[in-house]
Structures
1.
Amino acid sequence: SGVIVLSWYPPGMADENGEPTDDLVPVVLDHAHKYNLKVTFHIEPYKDRDDRSMYHNVKYIIDRYGSHPAFYRHKTSTGRLLPMFYVYDSYVTIPEIWANLLTVSGSQSIRNTPYDALFIALLVEERHKHDIHRSGFDGMYTYFATNGFSYGSSHHNWASLKAFCDSNNLMFIPSVGPGYIDTSIRPWNNHNTRNRVNGKYYETAFSAALLVRPEIISITSFNEWHEGTQIEKAVPKRTGQVVYLDYKPHKPNVYLELTQKWSEKYRKE
C-alpha cells in the first residue's frame, strides 16, 4: 500500500494562502483506510517553530491520530515501528535547536519516549547534509520537482547524497515530480519551469531515483496545480484568466498510470 504525506500545520494555523487544515485529518485518515493507504505528516514551517513546539506537535499528532488504522508507521532496520515526520524548511532552524529534540542527550529529547519517530529533514544545499546529521535527524528528502533548482533536487547529486546517508546511518529519500510550472503565481520564475515532455520528465526522475536504491521515494505532489506538479486526473479546463494544464494527447489518468508502473518497478527491485 502507498503512503499519503499530508501538509500539516498545528491547529488554528495555516499558510498565508490557506485555511487551517488540522480539522481535515480525520476525514483523510478514514478515506485512506478504505483504500488501504497510510497517512503521515509534512510539518510546515510556522512562525517560531522550535524544539519545544515541535515536541508538542508530535505529541499532539500521535496522541490524536496514532491509534487510527491508517496512521503510518515505518519498520526500521532494527525492527522498530515508528511514525515518520517530514519537516519542511528544517534548515531555517539551527542544528543546536534540533539536537535538543532529536539527540538522545538533548534537553527536550524525544528519543526513546512514546513519541519517538523518524524525522526527515529537507536538504536544499550540499552543506545541509552535515547540519542534518548534526541535528539528529533520521534522514533527508529533496522535495523540489525541478531538476537543477537546488543541489538536493538535482538528479546527478543523488548518488553522492545516498553514499553520505549510508555512511552516516541516515535515510535518503529522493523526491520526484512530473514537471514544474509556477509562473501563474511567480511570474519571474520561468527559468525553473520544466516541461513534462509527455511523461518523459517524470520517468527520468523515477529512473534517477531507482538508480540509488533508496528505501523510500517521495512524489511531489498529488495536486499542486499552481506549481504544475499535479499527477491526479486532469481534463482541459479554464476559469477566467487561468487555463489549467491537461495531459493531452494522453488520457486524464496518464500520470497515475506512470506512477503505478514505476512503483511496481521499484517494488520488484
2.
Amino acid sequence: GSEGLPESLRRGQEIAQRPLLFQELDITDGAALQELFGKHQFSAVMHFAGLKAVGESVQKPLEYYRVNLTGTIRLLEAMKAHGVRNLVFSSSATVYGDPEYLPLDEKHPVGGCTNPYGKSKFFIEEMIRDLCKAERDWNAVLLRYFNPIGAHESGMIGEDPQGIPNNLMPYVAQVAVGRREFLSVFGNDYKTDDGTGVRDYIHVVDLAKGHIAALKKLKENCGCKIYNLGTGTGYSVLQMVRAMEKASGREIKYRIAARREGDVASCYADAALAERELGWKAAFSLDKMCEDLWRWQLQNPTGF
C-alpha cells in the first residue's frame, strides 16, 4: 500500500499504476545494505544515490568523497556478497573536465575534473571498471548524464530541491512562479556566443528511458559499457531563460554574478554511441522540457 510512502513515491506509484516497494536507508551504512540485499532477490541495481552540487563540492570536498565513494564501495560490497552482478550507474558529463573538443564523445579523456563532484564520479567509474575486469561475470553500464530538466507530463512528479536550488532550471521555474525574486547568472564572460555557460539539457523522461535501454543491455552480458545520455545540443543560460519565459508567459528577472568555481564554459554531448548500441535517442525538445517543467511548477508551487 502507499501508507508511509513519501508523497513523491506515492505519486510515482499512481503514474506507474503498480506498487513500489520502498526502503529508506543511508547508502554509507554497510550493515543496512547487507540486510536489504539479504531480504530481497535483486537481479540488477540502479545506483543514483549521491551528492551532486558542483559548487558545494568545491566547498565540502570531504563530504562529497565520503558519501559518493564510501557509499558506492558499501553498495558494491553488498552486491558482491549477495551475488548481484548487474549495475547501472549514474555518472556525469563532469568526468570529462574542461572539454578538449565538442561535442563530447565517450573517447574524450576523463579524469581532468574541475571539481570534487566530478572527481567522485570519475573515481566511481574507475572502481566499477576495475571490478568488471577482476570479475568477468559482472556487467555494468555507466551512464554519463548531461543536464536533466523537465518533469513528467502529468505534472504530478518533478524536481523538488530542498532549500536554494543548485541547478539552473528549478531556480528559473521558481523565479517564474514568484517564489524567488531573480536568477543569478554565474558569469557572462565565458567564451560562448552570449558569454553565459552552455550546457546540454535533456528531458528527464528521455533520461529514464535511457536507463531502461541500459537494463536491457545488461541482459546481453555486456561487461562494462559507457554511454553519454544527452541531446547533442548546447544551450546558453540566457537561451534557457528565454525558453522558460516562452513556456510560462512570464518575465524572468536575472542578475549577472561572479563565475562559480568548478564550472566549465561549454559542455554538450555526442550521443551517437547510445543510439547505435542501446537503440536509445533523446526525443523531447527544449520547448517540451520547459512546458513540462512549467506545468509541474505551476501545479506544485511549493513542491511536494
3.
Amino acid sequence: LSLMSHPLCHPQLEGLCSFLQFSTCPEPFLVRFCSWLLALTPDLSYTSAAILAEQLFLRRVLSLTQPPSRHLMAALTSFCSKYSHPFCRVLVAAVLQEPGEGAEQTKLMCELVEECLEPHSVHLVLSQILEVPLSEKLLPVLQAVLGRQEVLPPELLDLLVLTLCQQAPAFATSLSFAKLVMAVLTMYQSQVS
C-alpha cells in the first residue's frame, strides 16, 4: 500500500485497486483504509483520488437500496473531508446520470452536501446538477445546496435562476419545486430581479 504515496500511472492504480478488490472489500476495512489515506504524505493527486473514489465507492453507492451502514458513511465522510472535489466529480456525476428514483442515493447526496463538503465542492455539485435536466429526484439535493447558504458566484446564481425559470412549466404542480424557488428568492433577493 505504500505504493500509493508515490505517483502511479492510471492503469497501475486501477490494476492495484482491482487486485486488492477495493470495490467489494469489507466496509470496516474501507474505514481503516480511508483513515490511512488521510495520513498519506504527500496528498494524492486529483487523478489518483478520483480513481480511488470510483474504485472504493461507486459500486457501493449506486447499489444502495437502504441507508448506508455506519461504516460506509464513516468512510465516505472521511474521504470527502480531504478529497471532496474528485469525489464529487466521480460520485455525484454518476448519481445524477443514474436513471430512476435513486431515493437512497439522493438522501446520501443531501447528507454529504449538508455535512461534509467544502464550499467550493458545494458549488461544483450545484453546477453538476444544472448540467442535467431537473427531476424530482434532484430537487432535494438542490434544496440541500441552498440550505448551506453559501455565497454563489454570480454566473452560477444566474444559471440557477435561468434553469428554474426554464423548468418552471414542467414543475407546475410540484411543491418541492415551489419551495426551491421560494428559497432562492428569499436567500438571493438582492441579486434576483
4.
Amino acid sequence: GHLDALLRGLVLGKLGKAGHKATLEEARRRFKDHVEGKQILSADLRSPVYVTVLKHGDSCTLDTMLKLHKQADMQEEKNRIERVLGAISQPELIQKVLTFALSEEVRPQDTVSVIGGVAGGSKQGRKAAWKFLRDNWEELYNRYQGGFLISRLIKV
C-alpha cells in the first residue's frame, strides 16, 4: 500500500545514510542498473537510493547524479535530485553542489532546495552552506528581492 511504500523509503534512506552494509550494497546495485537503463528505479525508491549512494559516494557518483539531472525530462525528477545532492559528504564535493545551486542548470526558485539539502545533509554541509550564503549574499538577495524564498533560504 501507499503508506508501506512511504515507510519503506524512509527506513531504507535512514539505513543507507547510516551505512548499513546490505542496504548500501543493494542501493549501489540498483543505482548502477538504473543509470545503465537495465532496471529503472520506482519513484518511491529513488530518493533513498540516491541519498545512500551520494552519502557514501565520490566525485564519480556526484557527476553521475548531475548527469541524471541534466537528462531528466520531468521537473519532478530534477527536483528530487536537487533535494538529495546535499547528502554528499566530501568537502570539495559539497562546494561543487553549492556552485551547482547557482548555475543555469537549476531554476532560480529551486536553488533554495539545493542549498537547503546541503545545510541539512551534515554538520559540515551546514557550515559550508552558511559560508556560501554569506559569500553569495548579494547575488541571492538580488535574485529573490525580499520575497518568500529569501526567508525560506535563511530558515534552512
